[in-house]
Design brief:
With 393 residues, the chain is an alpha/beta fold. The protein folds into 2 domains: 4-183 and 300-388, 3-Layer(aba) Sandwich (Aminopeptidase); 187-295, Alpha-Beta Plaits, CATH 3.30.70.360. It contains 12 helices and 16 strands. The chain has helices spanning 4-7, 11-23, 32-44, 103-122, 143-149, 152-155, 209-220, 222-225, 265-286, 305-319, 337-343, 374-388, and strands at 48-53, 57-64, 70-76, 128-135, 160-167, 175-176, 181-183, 187-194, 198-199, 234-243, 249-250, 253-262, 289-295, 301-302, 324-325, 346-352. The strands form 4 sheets. The protein has an 8-stranded mixed β-sheet, with helices on both faces. The chain has a 4-stranded antiparallel β-sheet with strand order 10-12-8-13, with helices on one face. A two-stranded antiparallel ribbon has the order 7-14. 49% of the residues are buried. It comes from Thauera terpenica 58Eu. InterPro entries: Amidohydrolase, Bact_exopeptidase_dim_dom, Peptidase_M20, Peptidase_M20_dimer. GO terms for molecular function: metal ion binding; N-acetyldiaminopimelate deacetylase activity. Pfam families: M20_dimer, Peptidase_M20.
Length: 393
């Protein structure tokens, strides 16, 4: 029997859950209401449930058969600090908070899978343990390392771990699976050039940090275009430049901020070194003092090849050969599921969300998760369990 037959009857229930979570968004490490919805739903199914892992994380345990094998399935729960601009009935009720990335849908799909997996376990359709990981704080705050630090992989020993994210612009219910990098690292830099303020009509009496900042912006553009092997990928973007408050005053400092993205740890190191060298050279040549800070954020999300192939196999069983893509380009966006993949083999896949309202993409105030894909996403999780924990493997 196809797993979609297990999840399709749940569509109405899952839609109600998803829209309730959407209407009550909670930011990183504050997902108390959402976590309680998750925990109570799991407990109502008879699933062993663990609360408070990584502050507000929840883990459910579904056991089938006698095998000691185990896998983890992860969904994120947090919202974004965005004011929603939709006017449908389930729009956010919290000013300035919004589920603009679909984590409400991710959580709901895994809850749907939990319900189907309980039935599958009773029918002995898989042999092993499934850990359902409901993670807090994906949006820049590092909920994944918080759960790891709280003993996730020690308390729930699993051989591999898997994640899924909706992807606007892809056909609803289709899948994209990458073998290797799927999301980039996300690092930040802060630079302050300090000179000597002066009257704008008498620049020779000061040391202009604005000119130094401008020189840095120009030179930083060569790090990728002239410093990287053209086969490698990298992004260096200066996104903030703050200096001065008056038309006729040369300020005494200029502050610049930006981000660095790449798929490769060696390129990450190269770009950090390059930014520092350029900043130091600019400071010396322009006679200004330098304060340079480079802060590493999420590492690249890199799927292991064997697990990605198994994910593609499961996706094809649910969506069909023509709706599973293994040739899509990875994204320069970042994802803290990367920390899980540094600990365990696994893969992170995309499920198509359709064009979205107005064609808007993630982190848009008009975004909404497509409820039509809820049963498909839940079915994918169930099929992946079948694929990985069948008695023949």
């Amino acid at each position: 029997m196809s797993v979609i037959e297990f999840t399709r009857p749940l569509h109405e229930k899952l839609t109600a859950i998803r829209r309730d979570i959407h209407a009550h968004p909670e930011l990183a490490f504050a997902e108390h209401r959402t976590a309680e919805i998750v925990a109570r739903h799991l407990e109502s199914l008879g699933v062993e449930t663990h609360r408070g892992i990584g502050v507000t994380g929840v883990v459910g345990v579904v056991r089938g058969g006698r095998s000691l094998r185990a896998i983890g399935l992860r969904a994120d729960m947090d919202a974004l600090p965005i004011t929603e601009r939709n006017d449908f009935a389930h729009r956010s009720t919290v000013q300035g908070h919004m589920h603009a990335c679909g984590h409400d849908g991710h959580t709901t799909m895994l809850l749907g899978a939990a319900e189907a997996l309980v039935g599958m376990a009773a029918r002995k359709e898989f042999d092993g343990t499934v850990y359902l990981i409901f993670q807090p704080a994906e949006e820049g705050e590092g909920g994944a390392p918080a759960m790891i630090a709280d003993g996730l992989f020690d308390r729930f020993p699993m051989e591999s771990v898997f994640g899924m994210h909706n992807w606007p612009g892809m056909e609803a219910g289709s899948f994209a699976i990458h073998s290797g990098p799927v999301m980039a690292s996300a690092d930040r830099f802060d630079i302050r050039f300090t000179g000597v303020g002066a009257h704008a009509a008498m620049p020779h009496l000061g040391v202009d940090p604005v000119v130094a900042g401008a020189a840095f912006v120009q030179a930083a553009q060569t790090l990728v275009s002239r410093g990287l092997d053209p086969i490698d990928a990298g992004v260096v973007s200066v996104t903030q430049f703050h200096a001065g408050e008056a038309y006729n005053v040369i300020p005494d400092r200029a502050e610049l901020c930006g981000t660095v993205r790449t798929f490769c740890p060696a390129v990450r190191d190269q770009l950090e070194r390059g930014l520092r060298q350029i900043a130091e050279g600019v400071a010396q040549s322009h006679g200004v003092e330098l304060c340079f800070e480079f802060r590493r954020g999420y590492p690249p999300t890199v799927n292991t090849a064997a697990e990605a192939a198994l994910c593609a196999q499961a996706a094809r069983a649910v969506a069909g050969e023509a709706r599973v893509f293994t040739d899509r380009r990875p994204s320069m966006g970042a994802e803290d599921f990367a920390y899980f993949l540094q600990e365990k083999p696994g893969a992170y896949v995309w499920i198509g969300n359709g064009p979205g309202e107005g064609g808007c993409m993630l982190h848009n105030p008009h975004y909404d998760f497509n409820d039509a894909v809820l049963p498909t996403g839940a079915a994918y999780w169930c099929q992946l369990v079948r694929t990985l924990l069948s008695s023949g493997r």
